[in-house]
């Protein structure tokens, strides 16, 4: 066979003549130390892993495009937002990472766990990340509780086993988690695969239009493949033989040319506290009821290209809730503010301080990145500093960079109030969980009860009783059925 393969080299570009043996004195050794090729190869191998994500360690990435409709519902998109990507019918490249939350990098994709749904839009105005999940809500509403909820769900710090007793100890002291738990222990807690699940931004954002007016907005991705979930028995059969069925399904569908699609929809609310609602619109443990806040279609996402390297495009990709473009802004949601610190903080540690120079994370090639940020570990690119590279500060009378014009002025909400540590007023922890319970199909409700009973039966009796009490607050029948399954009394 003719030798048409590229010649193997070291990272220094030196052609390698022998990749089978190290340099030794004679064929039996001892080995010599000046063996640069061997040392480079083995020491690079020793450093092949970066720390896995503290949550969402297992995931899968694909690339594609988002096509905006130019409208939001029956209005021109400009009514609500000046974000350029929505203004006309047009395409924006996207990269998406689907994930599970609690397991490690090689864990089962059939686990009962929320699924991450993170989308990076590579827009004309730089990147916009929407970092969401498939369940529309979350366990907690204040970012300060995030390390605690995750510690309870992660393996025990001594036995390294996920323990229902630890999970329900935390949850039974966290009434706001009942809505999320009702989704999670139903079939929605194990989507059939990534293609057949929906996504939601969960936290509340703001749209800002050219007139500087803001509205509250929630984002939703509706799967065009049909929504399908698994029962625990179906999931158990899959994970008995395959821990990565969802990644495989997505990868193979794209290879076959069956490109999955999701339609982006938004719900819009005027930007105020809405005292008429029985919940706080900024509370991420709540859904905005669709009959009051209809879904308005915005555009369609199609995934049509697989990654070429898992480490570069999956391990090193970095999403964050602070990565917004002009026209999309933060709301006062205090959970969102906490998340926004956490993502880029962990990425500076996990990937490195120059993570934004990596091709998978930096904005599109044709979008200028002009900053005076310089140096740091693994820096290799220099951002545009204008015509005079000596000026790496601003302002300068000589050269350098200029601030953007008034059209990019940030939204300026007026805020006043006493600084405090306090819970929100309209907590209403049970009503939407009860509604969810009642709206399920019979088989979904049966599955929910079965899954809760299976897990709670491994817990101490006082936790079982506490959880039954919470479920009874959601819906009398809900509590009663869990109690019956556990063989305990509702009023115990
Ligand atoms: C205060 C609450 C939260 C905090 C502090 C937090 C923090 C984090 C951290 C530190 C990571 C790892 C990021 C990385 O290593 O690149 C992460 C990943 C992620 N989080 Fe959160 N999170 C919070 C709530 C949420 C919520 C409510 C959602 C869903 C709406 C969510 C969705 C995700 C997703 C999808 C990822 C994976 C991103 C990827 O694929 O790389 N998180 N989160």
Helix content: 25-40%
**Number of self-contained structural domains:** 3
Number of strands: 12
Which spans have pLDDT < 50 for at least 5 consecutive residues? none
Biggest sheet architecture: 10 strands, antiparallel
Features:
single chain, about 500 residues, alpha+beta, Cytochrome C Oxidase, Chain J, Catalase HpII,  Chain A, domain 1, 3 domains, 10-stranded antiparallel β-sheet, two-stranded antiparallel sheet, 13 helices, about 25% helix, about 15% strand, binds protoporphyrin IX containing FE
Describe this structure in words.
- The protein is α+β, with helices and mostly antiparallel strands and 492 residues long.
- The protein folds into 3 domains: 1-48, Irregular (Cytochrome C Oxidase, Chain J), CATH 4.10.91; 59-156 and 190-357, Catalase core domain (Catalase HpII,  Chain A, domain 1), CATH 2.40.180; 431-486, no CATH class.
- Helix content is 26%, strand content 17%.
- It is built from 13 helices and 12 strands.
- It has helices at 36-46, 84-87, 146-153, 164-172, 178-184, 232-239, 245-255, 310-315, 334-350, 431-439, 442-456, 461-474, 476-486, and strands at 59-68, 71-72, 75-76, 90-100, 115-123, 126-133, 199-200, 205-208, 214-223, 261-270, 296-306, 328-330.
- A hairpin with a 5-residue loop joins strand 8 (205-208) and strand 9.
- The mean pLDDT is 96.
- Residues 53-56, 59, 97, 99, 116, 118, 131-133, 138, 143, 146, 202, 284, 317-319, 335, 338-339, 342-343, 346-347, 350 line the site of protoporphyrin IX containing FE.
- Its cofactor is heme.
- Residues 1-27, 360-381 are annotated as: Disordered.
- Decomposes hydrogen peroxide into water and oxygen; serves to protect cells from the toxic effects of hydrogen peroxide.
- It is an enzyme of class 1 (oxidoreductase).
């Amino acid at each position: 066979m003719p030798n048409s393969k590229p010649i193997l080299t070291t990272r220094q570009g030196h052609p390698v003549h022998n990749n089978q043996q190290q340099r030794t004195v004679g064929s039996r050794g001892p080995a010599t130390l000046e063996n640069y090729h061997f040392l480079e190869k083995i020491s690079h191998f020793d450093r092949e892993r970066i720390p896995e994500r503290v949550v969402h360690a297992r995931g899968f990435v694909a690339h594609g495009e988002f096509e905006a409709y130019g409208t939001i519902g029956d209005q021109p998109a400009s009514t609500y937002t000046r974000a350029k990507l929505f203004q006309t019918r047009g395409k924006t490249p996207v990269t998406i990472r689907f994930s599970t939350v609690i397991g490690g990098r090689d864990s089962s994709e059939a686990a009962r766990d929320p699924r991450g749904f993170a989308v990076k839009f590579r827009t004309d105005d730089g990147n916009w990340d929407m970092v969401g999940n498939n369940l529309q809500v979350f366990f907690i509403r204040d970012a300060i509780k995030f390390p605690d909820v995750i510690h309870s769900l992660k393996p025990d710090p001594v036995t390294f086993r996920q323990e229902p007793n630890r999970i329900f100890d935390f949850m039974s002291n966290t009434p706001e988690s009942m809505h999320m738990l009702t989704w999670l222990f139903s079939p929605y807690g194990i989507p059939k695969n990534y293609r057949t699940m929906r996504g939601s931004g969960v936290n509340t954002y703001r749209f800002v239009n050219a007139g500087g007016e803001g509205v509250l907005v929630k984002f939703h991705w509706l799967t065009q493949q049909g929504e399908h979930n698994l029962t625990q028995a179906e999931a158990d059969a899959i994970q008995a033989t395959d821990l990565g069925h969802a990644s495989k399904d997505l990868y193979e569908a794209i290879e076959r040319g069956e490109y999955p699609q999701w339609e982006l929809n938004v719900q819009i609310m005027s930007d105020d506290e809405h005292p008429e609602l029985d919940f706080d619109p900024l509370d991420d443990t709540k859904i905005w009821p669709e009959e009051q806040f209809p879904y308005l279609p915005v555009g369609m996402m199609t995934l049509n290209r697989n990654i070429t390297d898992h480490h570069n495009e999956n391990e090193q990709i970095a999403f964050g809730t602070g990565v917004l473009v002009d026209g999309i802004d933060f709301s006062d949601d205090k959970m969102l503010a906490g998340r926004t610190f956490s993502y880029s903080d962990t990425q500076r540690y996990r990937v490195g301080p120059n993570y934004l120079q990596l091709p998978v994370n930096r904005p599109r090639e044709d979008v200028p990145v002009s900053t005076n940020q310089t140096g740091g570990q693994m820096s290799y690119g220099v951002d545009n500093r204008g015509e005079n590279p000596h000026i790496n500060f601003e302002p300068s009378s000589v050269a350098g960079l200029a601030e953007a014009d008034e059209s990019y002025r940030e939204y300026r909400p007026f805020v006043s109030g006493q600084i405090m540590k306090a819970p929100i007023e309209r907590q209403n922890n049970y009503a939407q969980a009860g509604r969810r319970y009642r709206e399920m199909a019979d088989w979904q409700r049966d599955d929910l009860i079965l899954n809760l009973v299976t897990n709670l039966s491994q817990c101490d009796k006082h936790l079982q009783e506490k959880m039954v009490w919470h479920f009874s607050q959601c819906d009398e029948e809900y509590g009663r059925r869990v109690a019956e399954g556990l063989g305990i009394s509702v009023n115990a």
